Amino acid sequence: MATPVALTIAGSDSSGGAGIQADLKTFAALGVYGASVITALTAQNTKGVSGIHVVPAAFITAQLDAVLADLDIGAVKIGMVAERSAIEAVAAGLRKWAPKHVVLDPVMVATSGDRLLAADAVDALRTKLIPLAAILTPNLPEAAALLDVPVATSEAEIEGQGRKLLALGCRAVLIKGGHGQGSESIDYLIDANGVEPLTAPRIATDNTHGTGCSLSSAIAAGLAKGDDLATAIRSAKAFVNAAIAAADRFAVGHGHGPVHHFHRFY
Predict the structure, then answer these.
(1) Is 220 helix (H, G, I), strand (E, B) or coil?
(2) What is the pLDDT of residue 202?
(3) Is 210 a catalytic residue?
(4) Closest to 20 (Cα-Cα) out of 182, 220, 191
């Protein structure tokens, strides 16, 4: 039986809660072998990002070619791609190797509020990566930033923004409601079939570092294992909700702490 393999293309979080580290933990927790292409190094902890060192585009290409020439990648998750040159390198690699599924998490701002994507790279994200994605997973502020509009405050506005993002060429959009208000956290799945709200109880915790990274990588893990997109999304949401619910078992750092990726095991 073939081993399910997923690839994360993202930045490194030196504190281990988000980025490449969160993705690899998620893959492992869900029974998927993880490979990585690192696009940037961050000097980061639970309180914020103090530095970003971007990996040269040629070396991003070298990593992509090395991994995709050898490993049977079932799904790719893309996270932080800090600069236009990195986006262009990733897009060229994906067009060259044509992996089965691409999950694009448009990482623009860290949980701490620090910007992770250069302003001139937003257009490249729109035009070069979104059309290659099976699913795009922005939160409410990211969806608004991609469209250069105010943050949606109603279900109708969220649906409208989702449809505009769909028109950019991806096959599905999951707009995450973690930044919303109320007792429930509602994500909205928008695709050719319509709009489906996915609800979960809102969990009161400050330990939410890496939630977006973990959700997108959990979706990729499901796709790598052969799940259809709807099943992968539901399983991923359940995994991340449980990881958030267990996050307060940790006492890590002095800011937004990490979620508990291995809550099933300890």
Answers:
(1) helix
(2) 81
(3) yes
(4) 220
Token couple for 95: 């067009």
Q: How many CA atoms lie within 13 A of 115 on its CB side?
A: 8
For β-strands 102-104 and 135-136, DSSP reports them as: parallel
pLDDT for res 110? 65
Give residue-wise pLDDT tens across range 57-67: 999 999 999 99
pLDDT at 113 over 70: no
127 is catalytic: no
- 15, 37, 266 from 21: Cα distances, Å: 9, 12, 18
Instruction: Report the first-to-last Cα separation within the chain, whole angstroms.
Output: 28
Q: Residues 167-182: pLDDT tens digits? A: 999 999 999 986 556 6
Global confidence as pTM: 0.95
Is 77 a residue of the active site?
no
Please confirm, yes or no, whether 170 is among the known catalytic residues: no
- Residue of 17, 176, 222, 257 marked catalytic: 176
Rg (CA), the chain: 17
Is residue 24 within 8 Å of 221, Cβ to Cβ?
no
**pLDDT value of position 200:** 82
Q: Which domains does the chain have, with CATH numbers?
A: 5-249 (3.40.1190.20)
Q: Determine the Cα angle at 91 with ends 188 and 43, to 5°.
A: 80
Sheet harboring 194-201: ordered strands across?
48-54, 33-45, 5-13, 75-78, 102-104, 135-136, 172-175, 184-191, 194-201
Which element (helix H / strand E) includes 39? Answer: strand 33-45
